[in-house]
Amino acid sequence: MTPMPKRFETKIAQWRQVEPLFSADHSARVTALPDRTMFNGILWIMQTGEWWDVLPPRYGDPHALQKQFEIWLANGTLKKAIDQLKGQPGMEWVNHPTALIRVE
């Protein structure tokens, strides 16, 4: 049985919609964590407005995730994914990350 996504995380159907954007270029990865885990960690930061250092442990190392965020932001992956998810049930709050994320 697949666990229910936590608040601010992608549902299975939502992840399937954006997954090809992330799996296209694995050379731009800084950690072995699954792309979905990293993306959900970034969504958590975006929604809560918290600093990277208070990222829940289930999302991995905060510094590695912050670096991955910077890569996906620079190469356009994050913008494309957010454009696809914006306004979907449970993702009404999603907006472009540059306006929401405080980078240390």
UniProtKB/TrEMBL annotation:
It comes from the Bacteria. Pfam families: DUF4096. Residues 13-80 form the Insertion element IS402-like domain. InterPro entries: IS402-like_dom, Transposase_6_like. This is Transposase. Coiled coil: none annotated.
